[in-house]
Amino acid sequence: MPSRGERPEDGAGLVPAESSTLHKEELSSKIKEQKVVVDELSNLKKNRKVYRQQQNSNIFFLAERTEMLSESKNILDELRKEYQEIENSEKTKIKK
Description:
single chain, about 100 residues, mainly alpha, two-stranded antiparallel sheet, 2 helices, 2 strands, elongated
């Protein structure tokens, strides 16, 4: 665990392999989080209300459940694609 204000996402002082591994772990965590969001939205009853949080604030706005579900699925797909690209680039580096 970082201490004294150090943030692992900065990547300062890391060699590229460590930075790549750190980014891969962060992506993996975000993918798991997004899977939960998609599952929760998928299992909601049709009449339930869904709210979207305004970025960088504590304000929530009513949103369409279907729109939120499709948006969350798109985000999940993008994260998976990025994760796959990192894995493929690592495999390519190993082959060289």
